[in-house]
Amino acid sequence: MAADALLRIDPSADVHRWVDGYVGRLEQAPGERWPVTGDDWHEALGDAGRLGDWLAFFDRELAGAPWPDVLARWWPRLVPGSIASATHCLIRTGHAVRALREVETAPRRAELAAALGYWAARWQPMPGSAPLSGAVPPVGIVPRSAIAPPVGAVPPVGGRPPGEALDGVPVLGAAGDLRARLDRLGLHPGWRPALRAAADVPVAEVPAALTRLVDAAVVRYGRWAPGSPVMLVHAATAPRAAALVLPALPPELWPLTHQAAWTAAAAIAALYRPAAALPDPARGGSAEEVVAAAVRSGDEHALKFAEVALESASRGVPTAAGAALRAAALIN
Question: Superkingdom, according to UniProt (predicted)?
Fold first, then answer.
């Protein structure tokens, strides 16, 4: 993911050197023990101990069918668990799909298989949602209740702009790991109403809605970054990853994708934003400054956020470059 972002923001960068420095942090992937099948996949979903089984499963899936078909079949099963590994699985999948849409190669198919395998093993529903079960259609659409409260469970509060909706999520102000924070978030009385703040989006408007969500999260990173400089990056990079996948998905999966991206961004904001916000970073800032700061930091989150923030800046978001500079400084 970060190597991909680094190449795109700075084609002249020594990516091989960065990868050499990063690879030592990786662990050897486990092998297969109990094969996942089309009949029992739901029992293995979210079982981190089955990581090797899931990796082998998706290797077989992608060897036996075109990657867009595999993606379309598994996307509605996986995307309700977008919060898995703090959205890293969604983000990795987004980068893999973008690369495959550009040029299809065996290593890129293998990367998508790994992304989907890790996602299936780490799958985690949002607080308050119903877990998947064997009743879910084998290739079908996951009910909206899997990622958000059922319509009517919470009175709709209208389609607020994504920035206002993010501002409205509760501030959890809690310590602990991701799972512990999510458990507490599910009990917060303001969580479900906050989720309903973002209205449903018609299919044709989903790409633009995801872009607006990304831009809003980039702006709020500039204000909230001290709460958790690394984790809050994902409030922007997760919906951006969903947008990268969108062109490869059947349009009927687009609204589900937007809802999952919004839910993930809102959860990250609620879990890690501080009670008090900083002033917005200075407007302006050149792309060259942003790239130099991110490359100098060498951190994978700073690199990925720099790419996303520069895209927001190109769309006229005035504080986006400053947010990226703030990310590089705080993460470094």
Answer: Bacteria
